[in-house]
Amino acid sequence: MTFDKKIILTINSSIKECNSHLSRLTRSYGLIREFFPLSEETLKSCSEEKIEHLDQFIYRFTKLQDAMGARLLPTIYSYLKNEIRPVPFIDILSGLEKFEVLTSENDWQFFRNLRNYLAHDYPESAAQTVLTLNTLFSNWDKMENLYIQVRDYCMKRIPGITD
C-alpha cells in the first residue's frame, strides 16, 4: 500500500470516528443544557439519569479530543508535509495553523487543558470540576467548529476524503 493510500484511509477512518463522537456529543449536549450553568449544589443533587448524560458528554468530548490528537491531526500533517517521521505535537499544531487547517493552536490547547482536567476528576475537587464543565459547556460551539473546520478542510482539499 502506498503512503498516500494509507494516509487517506487513516484520515477517513479518523473522520468517521470523530463524527461518531460528535453525534453523541451533540445529543448529550441537548440533554444536559437545562442544568447549565452548573453549581456544586446542582451537581450533587443531579439524578442518576442526568449524571449519565453528563458523563456521556464528558466521555465523548474526551474521546473526540483524543481521536483528533492521536490520529487525525498528525495524519493530516503527515499528508500535507509528505513525510512520516515523528514530529512533536506542538509542531504539528503550528504547521496545521500555517496550512489553515486549524484557526488557532491556542484553541486546541485550551480544549486539551479542559480535557486533561476532566480526565483527572476527583470527588474532593468538585469546585474545579464544576468550573471546567461550565467552561466546556459555554465554549462547546468553538470545539465543535474546530473539528468541523478540520473535517471540511480535509473533504475540500484532500482527494479521496469522504464524510
Detailed description of the structure:
With about 160 residues, this protein is mainly alpha-helical. It has a single domain (about 5-155), classed as Up-down Bundle (Four Helix Bundle (Hemerythrin (Met), subunit A)). The chain is about 75% helix and about 0% strand. The protein has six helices and no strands. It has helices at about 5-30, 40-45, 50-80, 90-100, 105-120, 125-155. Helix 3 (about 50-80) crosses helix 4 (about 90-100), helix 3 runs antiparallel to helix 5 and helix 3 crosses helix 6 (about 125-155).
Pattern of helices and strands:
HHHHHH
Reported CATH architecture = Up-down Bundle
Largest sheet: none
Distance separating the two termini: 22 Å
For the record, the count of structural domains works out to 1
Q: What Rg do the Cα atoms give?
A: 17 Å
- Count of helical segments? 6
What's a quick, concise take on this entry?
By secondary structure, this protein is mainly alpha-helical. The protein is built from 6 helices and no strands.
Q: Any descriptors?
A:
Four Helix Bundle (Hemerythrin (Met), subunit A); 163 residues; mainly alpha
Write the layout of secondary structure elements.
Elements: H1 3-32, H2 40-44, H3 48-81, H4 89-98, H5 105-119, H6 126-157
Helix pairs in contact: 1-3, 1-6, 3-4, 3-5, 3-6, 5-6
